[in-house]
Amino acid sequence: MLAAIWFTAGMRKLVTRSVPGLVAISLMVLTLQTLAAIATGNLLIFLLHFPLANLGLCVLFARTARGHSPIAERLAAEVIGLRCPAVHRLPMSRFFQRVTLLWAGVFLLLAVSLGALLAAVPFATYVPVWAATTIVLIAAGIAASGVWLRSVTRRLGIGFRFTAAPALD
């Protein structure tokens, strides 16, 4: 998993000359957790960060949901370059506040379920169940967000236009 994050960051840096903040944060956290687990020889230190990181993400998303710049809006702009015309700014801002709360709930559900799994199952069982649980809940959140975004943009008459990314000098 650590190799996959490093590979993703490296490829992103080569292709776009930048690394999104979320990837950089993941890279730092996983690298530190891996080093701590190797140094102590305690696998629990490595595995404990999954529920704790999800709890931290839950708090982060929940705290920004009611503000003028919800994190889901910033991530949509950073990761996929989603921009919105000024005339639709207020309704889209409400959408991003609500979808940020949705993601806070997804991360809370992940934190609780992964914490319970860590306490209840052996490490050898935890890893594949952790992976499946994370994939299913994140995929469900992505699907719900995508369907919701499409319904809001259709209702507002906003279309999607795909253009080339601006050249980096």
Describe this structure in words.
It is a single chain. With 169 residues, this protein is mostly helical. The chain has 2 domains: 1-41; 50-156. Helices cover 79% and strands 0% of the residues. It is built from 6 helices and no strands. The chain has helices spanning 2-16, 21-40, 43-65, 71-79, 89-120, 123-156. Helix 1 runs antiparallel to helix 2 and helix 5 packs antiparallel against helix 6 (123-156). It is globular, with a radius of gyration of 18 Å. The chain starts with a helix and ends in a 13-residue tail after the last helix. The model has no long low-confidence stretch (mean pLDDT 83).
Topology:
Blueprint: H1 2-16, H2 21-40, H3 43-65, H4 71-79, H5 89-120, H6 123-156
Helix pairs in contact: 1-2, 2-3, 3-5, 5-6
Task: Kindly list the characteristics that best describe this protein.
single chain, 2 domains, globular
On the 0 to 100 scale, the average pLDDT is: 83
Q: Please provide the count of β strands.
A: 0
Strand-pairing-aware structural class: mainly alpha
Give the C-alpha Rg.
18 Å
> What is the first-to-last residue Cα distance?
32 Å
Number of helices: 6
The largest sheet is: none
Described by the principal axes of the CA atoms, the overall outline is globular
N-to-C series of helices and strands: HHHHHH
Give the proportion of residues in helices. over 70%
Approximate strand percentage:
under 5%
Which residue ranges are poorly predicted, with pLDDT under 50 across at least 5 consecutive positions?
Answer: none
* Tally of discrete structural domains: 2
